[in-house]
Amino acid sequence: MAPVIYPARRAVEHAVALPGVRPVRLFPVLWPFWQVEITANVYEEQAYEVIDRFLVRAVVEGGVDDRDELIRFFGLEPPLVDRCLAFLSVIGHLTVERGRVRMTDLGLRSVRAGVRYEPKESRQKLLIERFTGRPLPRGHYQTSPGVLPSPEVPDELLTDRTRFLSLFTPVAFQPQMINDLAARSDRTEYNLPGQLREIRGIAAQDAYMPAYLIETDNRSLLAYTAAVTGRDPFLEAVCRDVPAIHMKIEAERRENPRDLWTAWLASSQLGPGQPRQLPNGVWRVTLRPTAFSGPPKLPLSRLGSFQLRKHHFIQLWCDDAELRGRATSERALSMTRLREVRTRADLAERIDGVAAQLEVTPPSFAQLRDHARRERLHDRLASLEALE
Question: What domain of life (predicted)?
Fold first, then answer.
């Protein structure tokens, strides 16, 4: 299955379940980063060749730092000694100038460790947040489909028709950002392995990560990305520190929710319904069971989820508890196909959240099997049975 951008509804569902939080509007955004290619040295540990080992020990421990003296000391043929010294010079362990042999820091470190460190070039990419110049935590590198090379989102990456806003900052990339990261004691937490040395930036390219910002009634912003289960604390910290992001959100037009959803309902062909605001601030429209009977109406999996329109959202509801129970089973079976759901415990945790959202009792695994068999959902039944 090709990787896709996880749907905006998932972020809304998480936000509305937060205690004491009143989400108001949703903003899909493409967060700007720099994707910086770096090159660095990583030192492989290799065993010394016999002659190499004795040569460097003679220089370090015996103070024999002359090429001719080394030949006499060991009684070796000059060409053999010259080849060994040339090799050790090429790998950066020593220098030979006018017959005088000098150990390098790398060579001394190798002698002390008793292994021959050989430098190898390593290349990798780092992500730097553009508003603040902060490096991204390691977990953001495991996001699928990952960062995008342009603010254009390919249709095949979308599971819905979400339109993303582009965030912009004129800040230019500074190579010192990489130097600062390399100097950090916790740099491994930001995807820069500790064994890399002599780190050098090669090129910085634009990159964009799909994210969702959810505005609350007190104008704070919750951030969601596929890199984190639940809220993204890294991007939320950037939002708190960068007023320009709040200004971008504030500039977007505010709609009257009641008027917005009344007009949507009138044009939806879903039948009668009345938008109303719940005590927690969430808008809900209660529909008849026939509204969830498939095209051109809504699939059952949409029951309890949210409709998005002009940065606002409304929960699609039905008072039929049995139908909500079936919808819970439908959504639970769909979750068995997610890459992050590998065990029954993973699925059970997610089922509890969906059941709470739909105000029903969580279905058991036996009930999920029965539902999959009854509805002939053979692929999802196989995924359910494959869970550890």
Answer: Bacteria
Q: Tell me which residue range forms the domain holding 143.
A: 8-40+128-250
- pLDDT value for 2: 43
Instruction: Give me the residues of the chain with pLDDT under 70, please.
Output: 1-4, 144-145, 296
The domain boundary, picked from 267, 282, 315, lies at 315
| Vertex 46: Cα angle to 41 and 48 (nearest 5) | 125
Report strand pairing: 283-286 vs 312-317.
parallel
> Is residue 301 one of the residues assigned to a domain?
yes
Q: Which residue in this structure is represented by tokens 């196909």?
A: 337
243 and 102 assigned to the same domain = no
d(CA 278, CA 354) in angstroms, rounded, equals: 18
What's the confidence (pLDDT) of residue 155?
72
DSSP 328-372: HHHHHHHHTTSTT--SHHHHHHHHHHHHHHHTSPPPPHHHHHHHH
Q: Could you give phi then psi for residue 213, rounded to 5 degrees?
A: -105, 130
Of 136, 167, 162, 130, the C-alpha closest to 151 is 167
Give the pLDDT confidence score for residue 121 in this predicted structure: 87
In a domain, 119, yes or no: no
Coil vs helix vs strand at 320: coil
Q: Residue 204 domain-assigned?
A: yes
Same domain assignment for residues 206 and 260: no
- Whether the upstream peptide bond of residue 145 has omega within 30° of 0, thus cis, is yes
